[in-house]
Every structure is written in structure tokens, then in C-alpha cells.
Amino acid sequence: MNINILQSEIQEFINKNSNTSISKLALQKNPFPEVDWKLILNQIEAKAKAKDKLPSWFNTPNILFPGKISVEQTSSEATALYKSNLVSGENLIDLTGGFGVDDYYFSKKVKSVVHCEINRELSKIVQHNFEQFQVRNIECRSGDSLEILKKSTQKWDWIYIDPSRRSDVKGKVFMLKDCLPNVPENLDFYFEKSAAILIKTAPLLDLSAGLSELKNVKTIHIIALENEVKELLWELHRDYSGAISVKTANITKGSVDTFDFEMQQNQSLPNYGLPQKYLYEANSAIMKSGAFDEVAIHFKLEKLHKHSHLYTSEELIDFPGRIFEIKAVFPYNKTEIKIHLSGKPCNITTRNFPETVENIRKKWKIKDGGNHYSFFTTDVNTNKIIVFCTKIK
């Protein structure tokens, strides 16, 4: 990183242009010929990416940014804050430090944090940024984290790992053994160094696939941000062999919706029924967890169908997901659709239905948007129905 980029006039230019189109700026002449123009443009583009995701980095003076891809791939501050509440103790080592957002928040809960990063340039950037934040309890080490662990005699209260998928692995199946570092291969060694391991994975990883590769899993956390699942967190404890807890959290600007359950503990079946006055759709974190029956039983709701994963009740309840008031329910046929939907704006969702939203819109000339919502689904009697609603939450 060219240190000249920290000159006050260059930083002022970067801040001033954080909302300017990069393609437009790229056509301009470089006003600072002593610094590579592409480097300045990269800082502007990466900083713009950080505005909502990393407001502390965006708003702190003299922060350096790596490539925009590193900013896109890093944890958001919201999810990093959630993770920080899972750890405590004297020390934590992060084997895949990256841009350091998680470690910044870990440092507020753990007395000493070590940030390992194999990319020497990125490690320098992160160390510089921690100095701007005046964080004194994070040590940045550059190099292969496995070698760093092997050479150290220290024991850790926590090991944190965010493995990245190897670029040479093709196909859609996502396995931890296909990532760097290879956690399943090194897990026994990690447990020699710490009794507690926290692993972050992408939401693409199937829960059963993760469990088939890991051991001593105590808790799985499924974290969504504004109803989009962002990451899975696997909490492993060396001597643990009990039931696995699943904790879901949907973080929004105003609150956090949570729903917790134990895997394979509930053998009960939910009640099924036809649509009543209210319709409920679980948030994306719950949907990822597969707790389709558990959520119905817990909230005493009826499911519309075993595979529809929509819920209903006569009385309104607080629920971790979207809530609708049902205005009409009608069969999926030409006559009813012409009466209720054709040519009118409507938000469409399909659940356990043979056609896609795109095909439905095209086939029946239904416009997008508006204040009404239609769920194309299958009811308990296996009839194709449309539930016409207005949104409450």
C-alpha cells in the first residue's frame, strides 16, 4: 500500500467522492500523479461498499481499504456484533483474519485477540486500521495460521475460523473439506490448542453436510440480515456430546427476531388447517434451519400443508417473520384470477406450487408491486389455492 494515499488532500478527495460513479471518475485526469490513480479509485469504490455494511470503517478518518471484493466478503458490523456475544475469556485466535471486522468486535469481549492473515499486504492494512480505532488488544500476525498454531505453545480460550472455498473446486456441492483451511482435516489438532471453536460458513452449506464433517457441535447459529441469511456459525466444544441447539436470528434495523430449538428433539406433528384470518411466513433464518414443524408447534399455529410452510391463525400473534391479514382465499382458476388479480399490481409468493412467479405474472398479466400480496400455494386438501392478503409486518 502506497503510504502517500494517507495524505490529507488525497483522503479529502476520497471522502468527497465516495458517492461518485467510479466509471465517471476513471475518465478524469489523476489530480495526484505521485499515487497510482487505480489505487485511489479502488479506495473510493471499496469505501462506498462499506458505507452501510461497515459504518465505523466508513466514518473513521484515515482508514485504508483492500480490494472491493474483500469488503464484499467480510462480515458486516451487525453480524460481527452478534458473533462477539458468543465468546469470552482471556484470549482468542482468528485463523482467517481477513479485513478484521470480526476481530474488532471480538476484542471488546476478549482480553487478547490474535489476527492471522496469510496476505501480508492485507495484514498491514488491518494493523493500520486498528491503530486508527485505537484498539490496543489485537495483535496482527502475517503468515500461514496453521504454522503459527504449530509453532505456538499457547492454549486459547477460543479459535475462530472463516474458511474460504478453494477456487479449484467445481460444482454446487459445498463441503468444508473443499475450503481453506481444511477444518475437518485439522479439527483434532485445533482441539489440542483450544476447547472451544467457532466456525463461520456461508449460508450455502447444508446443515446436514456440515454435521457430517464436524464433531462436538453444541450450537448452530443461523444469522440473517434484513431477512437474507448471511452466515452460519458452528459452535464446537471439545468435550460436548449432547443435543445440538439451533439458534436463528433475523437482524433488522429496529430489532432482532429469534427462534431457538433442539435438533430432532420434537417428534410431534403440527396441526393442519385451511386459511383463517391471519397468514404467517417464517423469516429466512428459520427457513434455512428446517424448523418448519417446530415453529408451528411453538406458536400454536396451523400449517396449510405439510410442504407449504405457511401458517395460519384466527387470533393475531407476534411472529418471527412476515405477518398478513387474509382478505380472500380462492381456487387457482381462470375465473377467480380474472376477478381478483388480472391487470392489478400485486406482490406474489409461491410456496409448494408448480409454477414460478415469473410464469404466473406472464400467464395472468399480473403487475408487480402495490399493497396487496398473493400466496400461490397448496392447502391441506391438496387443492391449489391463492391467499390474497395485506401485510401487517
TrEMBL record:
Entry's Gene Ontology BP terms: methylation
Signal peptide location: none
Cross-referenced InterPro entries: PG_1098_Fer, SAM-dependent_MTases_sf, Thump-like
Highest taxon in the source lineage: Bacteria
Annotated ranges, domain THUMP-like: 321-391
Keywords recorded for this protein, A-Z: Methyltransferase, Transferase
Pfam families, sorted: PG_1098_Fer, Thump_like
Transmembrane segments: none
Domain PG-1098 ferredoxin-like: 278-320
GO molecular-function term, one example from the UniProt record: methyltransferase activity
Designated name of the protein: SAM-dependent methyltransferase
Organism: Flavobacterium pokkalii
Organism placement in taxonomy: Bacteria, Pseudomonadati, Bacteroidota, Flavobacteriia, Flavobacteriales
